[in-house]
Amino acid sequence: MSPKQGRKIALVGASGNVGSQTLSALLSQNIHTITVIQRPESTAEFPPKVILNKGPLDDEAFLAGALNGQDVLVLQLPRPVTDIRPGLIRAAAKANVKYILPVEFGTDPEAKIVDEFDHLAQKRETRKLVEDLGTSSWIAVVTNPWLDLGLSVGGWGIRVKERKAALFEGGNTKVNTSTLKRSGEATAELLSLPETELVKFRNRAFFISSFYVSQQEIFESVLRATKTTEKDWDVTTPTVNDVTKESDEALKAGNFMKSFLDKYYMTHLREGFGGDYNDKVDSKNLRLPEEDFDKVVAETLKSAGLA
C-alpha cells in the first residue's frame, strides 16, 4: 500500500459517539493537523495536540475563517443539530476546503431504504449542495446501523434488558454492520490515503463494514454474552406489516424512539433495501485488524450494564 499523507482536518461533532472515535484514530496516525470546531458553550475537552476553535456554528463568517487552510471538513453531528449543515458546507466552499465528509455515517446513499426515511433523503440535498457550489468534493462514509450502539439502545430488534427479540421475517437475512471504533479507524485510514488514492472517492460513497451477519447470528451472540438460552427470551418473528403497524402505534403513543428503532432496523434487514452491501466494502482494503464478533457483542452489553 502507498505511503500515508498528512492533511489539515477540521472536525465538527468531535465529542460525539463516532466523532470521538474518529478524532482518536486521526490523532493516532500522527501525521495530521487536527482542528476541532466547537460551540462556545460546549464543555468537551480534547488532547493538547488538537487545535480548538470555538464559535457559533450558525455564523458562516466565523466558520469560513475557522476553515481557512483546511484540506478536509468532517461533519459528525447528531440529528438534532443537522439543520446547520448548509451553512457549514457554504463556509467550507468559501474557504476552498477540498473534501467534505458530510453527516452520513449510516446508509448506502443509493439504497432503496433512503426513500423510506426523511432524514436519509435529506442527505441527498447536502451532497447536491456540495456539488452545486463547485469548490469541494464530498465523500459519504457508509457504516449501516452500528452494531454496538444499536444493541445498547434496543436496536436490531433485540431488547436485552426485557429479554425480548423480534427476528424480522425469521432473522436470517444478512446485512453489513460496523462498530463505532471501526468507523472512526476506517475514516482515519481513508483520510490518510495519498491524494492519488483519496481522489478515487471523490463524490462517491466509502463503505465500511465490521461484520456481515444476520439478525439471528446477532441474537445467538447475545445469548452467549448473557449466558442465557432462547427459552429465557420472548422470541417473535414479525412480518414487515407487523413491524410497521407496531411502529405506527408507538408513534401515536408518543414513543418516537421505539417507533423509529423498530422500523429503521427492520428496513435495513429487508431483502433488496440496501442493508447488504458486502460486494462494495472498501474498508477491507485498509490496514485494519479483524474484529472479534462475540467479543464486540459481549463488551457492548457489559459496558451498557446488560450482561
From TrEMBL:
Keyword Electron transport: no
Protein name per the record: NmrA-like domain-containing protein
NmrA-like domain location: 7-140
Pfam assignment, any one: NmrA
Gene3D superfamilies: NAD(P)-binding Rossmann-like Domain
Keyword set, alphabetical order: NADP, Oxidoreductase
A GO molecular function held by the record: oxidoreductase activity
SUPFAM superfamilies documented for this protein: NAD(P)-binding Rossmann-fold domains
UniProt superkingdom: Eukaryota
InterPro entries reported in the protein's UniProt record: NAD(P)-bd_dom_sf, NmrA-like, NmrA/Isoflavone_reductase-like
Species: Talaromyces rugulosus
